[in-house]
User: Fold these one by one.
Assistant:
Number 1:
Amino acid sequence: MAIGGLGLASLAGYSAGFQSLVLGSDSPLAAYVPLFLGLFALYVLAVGLLVRRPSSDRGLLILILGFGLLFRLAVLPTPVVLSSDLYRYFWDGRVQWAGVNPYRYPPAAEELRPLRDPEVFPALNRPTKRTVYPPGAEALFAAVAALAPDSLVAWRVLLLGGEIATAALLLGLLARTGAPPTAVLLYAWAPLAVFEGVQAVHLEALLLPLLLLALRFRQEGRMARAGLALGAAVLLKLYPLILVLAWRRRGDRRFPLALALTVAAGYLCYLPGAGPTIVGFLPEYFGSAEDFNIGLRFFLTDAIGLGGEIARGTVMLLLFAVLLAILIRIPRGRAEDAESVLGAGMTAVAAYLVLVPTAMHAWYALWILPFLTLRPSPGWIWFSGAVGLSYLKYAWEPEGFPLWARALEFIPLYGLLAWEAYRRRGVAATAAYRPASQAGVGPTLDRTGA
């Protein structure tokens, strides 16, 4: 079977390829990029096979899920290469079990000197900055530290459980839309999910099942539960908060109220001993020092010679305003059926990723993958691979991210999204002029994009 062959080739890349090419390299991040792109090419071939020949075959589904699990098990015993965030998880958990509020001091503070060790502390990024993680993440750090302090394996097993939950929820949502269950391959085989989840140990692997729960509850009209699930997601990472605007329903207060109460409860738990410092590193996150792999803002400023803080701040505000306008407009005229709710969520996430004027680390794109599985988009499939080019930034230090790589990453995304939007307008126009006698003729779901 072609899918089986692609799965075996991919497994070789995740196991022997990663061990020899990346871990055996003097420059692991530079070596990672060609391996990632090679695996992405295999992924695109597999997606293409499923698009041309959709199947609900149970044996094929088991094969797809089995390989997805094997890919993650292959990288589970490897050392973390792509990120040092894990060490902040260790540190913040340790600080809490020492009876100190994690928002109160940065790791380098003299007050925390007794907690330093030769393994975790030197590996921390931003040791002079307070934590940026929301209270839900901090509670998770403390819980894992209680059960298995400083354990990479414990974190990877936990995130693997999150990925399994994501796949299970996606299968349920695919069944509701009538799509073949084998479409779960778009998430299960995505190199971005494999590497940025279990390998790099990013919290998005736990965020995604909460988002999918919120989506399902919102589709079913269970507004309070949707707000609770989305609130839990926001307590892990703040950016899902944008969905409260996209998924709001006129006249309903349960959804925003449940979300607000959930988030407030999380922050109230950490407010004593923190006070104003509970916002952590967040205000500094919007500073120019944190710029990384900037997309649209770069092409509107530096690419045309508009450098400096004034241009940067002006365009940032402009992009935030456009994003807010889109989020406010999404619910207007939207039906309350499941497909419309899905479309609203994907449009919001897509708008955020295109317009967000702050850093675009590769793992920030992970939350488009579940929506992409439910509603395939050539543009976002491209970006889920092209975003891996951002790791070249570390190979080009101190010169910075090469322009050709940035253009290859973002320009095709913008072009493909424009093409998808044009196609959707054509489909909508055709449907509008379809005779009533043909009302049930033709596809009922445009699965081309966000």
Number 2:
Amino acid sequence: MASITISLPDAAKDWIDEQVRSGGYANAAEYVSELVTQERVRQGEELSLEEVRHLIKASKASGIGTRSMDELFAEAERLVEAKKARRA
């Protein structure tokens, strides 16, 4: 795996640290890697088979969520509406 060193504003570092502390990510590198993957998908770039396998493995390891299907669908609808609003 490759390494990269970046400088961030304190607020950005604090945000990343909070995401890790909240238990969503094992470390800052995992969080940043997830952001890069999300942006690639958003821009329509296809992921490699290895990347898809990694995503599946990570989602299985994250365990079962606590939100209901209704909550998940409501969140999905909110995200779609927010995306539409940004495009308008």
Number 3:
Amino acid sequence: MKHIALITLLLSLAFTGCEKQLSEDIDPITTATALENSDNILSKYIEKLDSEFTTQDVRIKILCRDYPREYKKNYMPNLLKLSPGEYSEVALLADMDLVLDHYKEKDAIQC
């Protein structure tokens, strides 16, 4: 009876370990492509913020909604997947805040 319980426990642990390992595997090519696409979007936002022809309404939309959303939903998670030990979520959020604060101060924008 003890052997059956032990075998059942070991088999359940083996299956659980295999399932967890499969869910953590990432496709580096897909993740790198998603990171590159997100970086391109963020670069376009910065170009618009640097342009003298961008209206104040567009600047507010970028700084208060679009840039933070893209950064948090796409750029940051993909960067953390590709370089798990190099960056932390706290450091990346601080970097984003530095960029946003610079443009908010420059353009006198409050979200």
Number 4:
Amino acid sequence: MLNQPSKTLVTVPNPHPDRVYTVEMETAEFTTLCPMTGQPDFATIHIEYQPHEKLVELKSLKLYLWSYRNEASYHEDCVNRILNDFVAAAEPRSAKVVGDFTIRGGIHTKVTVEYTK
């Protein structure tokens, strides 16, 4: 696996597909560009999911989130796309993504999206 941004989420087999459990992951290093100004937007991304047959490999998740760094995207769009791509790759029982963006123009934005099978 390279150390370059990638839109590919790699999965590995879940060694406990019969058990219902929750995995939580968080990074405070998410960056994207504001499509209106071109200025960087920073966020903490929190992903919570109940895996079924597959787990998302963490380095691929890091490189996937890194791929947004030079992309212009609204907060709501980023978080929804992250959830869509995560669900498409991992096929979890359920998933939730929260994007907690730093204050911009005096406004704090927090976007939460959920998926249930």
